[in-house]
Design brief:
Nucleotidyltransferase, domain 5; 5-stranded mixed sheet; globular; kinase
């Protein structure tokens, strides 16, 4: 058995994909592996653990190939392993995710001396702002806002999952579209063209089929979030119901951002606002409407789309830990 040692393992355990990177002393990636999302709140603990294990296993296979060793005969010690995990919002979440990580690491024979677990959003914020004051607004499958001020104080709003939160997210937009279709069909709301594209997407012919899909085994948070693209298309085609949904989405994201800005007392200061996630990246109307509200509220802020892959924030945290350990 070949026992190797590396300083850092960084893992981005996102809701859409998971990515593991093994780095050497020169901060060069010696192993990388990618797999599906591992937010246990969305896909369950077992499936999330499988995705996490898969990305770690692929990173180990990549390492073995570069070292010209047999993958089955490698054990790896890492000085520090940092996991940025979607779905980490409460202490109960932390316990569940710790169990997932422990199972995945043992499965692929990785043994960390130090283990750091953060919410993936906090790690992304660190990477984008490099420790300077700023807030991160994420609207992808789910939604959440994080912030940090000049004193190093952190705050967050939202991110409570699809059942009770995630306002302004792809899931939330898709859900509002389903509600709007059903309201139109039974005469409680205005007519909308949303039904045409969404029925086609899920193989439905009417509202009853739509309801059956929502309560069927084939339904998932991810599939509901995918409906948001059809809401945007309907908006572009002039559908007023779709426009109302997207306006409400941007308003919800602004309310969440404003709450973090107030908590951190950033309103009168210059700071950075980072926008990230599929909704804000691909749906120009939502992004621009949100930016207009933010500029009106905090004119000194600088707003940018996220430039760094989330893994860089996780690597930054790991390197900072290793540097402190050496001092």
């Amino acid at each position: 058995m070949n026992r190797l040692h590396l300083p850092l393992l960084a893992v981005d355990g996102g809701g859409t994909k998971s990515l593991a990177v093994l780095l050497d002393q020169q901060q060069q990636a010696l192993g990388e592996g990618q797999a599906g999302g591992c937010n246990y709140q969305g896909i369950g603990k077992e499936a999330a653990t499988q995705s996490l294990t898969a990305c770690l296993d692929k990173a180990m296979k990549d390492l073995a190939k570069k070292k010209k060793l047999s993958h089955s005969e490698i054990q790896l010690e890492v000085e520090c392993a940092v996991f940025g995990m979607a779905g980490l919002d409460t202490e109960q979440d932390r316990q569940v995710i710790l169990e997932m990580i422990d199972e995945a690491l043992k499965s692929v024979k990785i043994y960390p001396k130090n283990l750091l677990i953060e919410n993936d959003g906090f790690a992304t914020l660190l990477g984008e702002t490099e420790g300077k004051p700023g807030i991160l607004v994420i609207a992808g499958t789910g939604s959440i806002v994080y912030g940090v001020n000049e004193a190093g104080m952190y705050a967050r709003t939202g991110g409570w999952g699809h059942r009770v939160g995630d306002e302004g997210s792809g899931y939330w937009i898709g859900k509002q579209a389903v509600i709007a279709i059903l309201r139109a069909e039974d005469g409680r709301g205005p007519n909308t063209s949303l039904s045409e594209s969404i029925y086609s997407q899920i193989g439905a012919e009417n509202g009853e089929d739509l309801v059956n899909w929502v309560y069927s085994p084939s339904y998932s948070v991810k599939k509901m979030a995918e409906l948001s693209q059809f809401v945007y298309k309907s908006y572009l085609d002039g559908d007023e119901v779709a426009k109302t949904i997207l306006l409400k989405a941007s308003e919800e994201l602004f309310i969440a951002a404003r709450a973090v800005i107030e908590q951190l007392e950033l309103k009168e200061k210059a700071f950075q606002i980072i926008l990230q996630g599929g909704v804000l990246k691909h749906q120009d109307f939502v992004r621009q409407t949100l930016m207009d509200q933010l500029y009106q509220y905090v004119p000194e802020a600088k707003i940018d789309m996220g430039k760094q892959d989330p893994i860089f924030g996780i690597i930054t945290k790991g390197l900072s830990f290793l540097q402190r350990e050496c001092e």
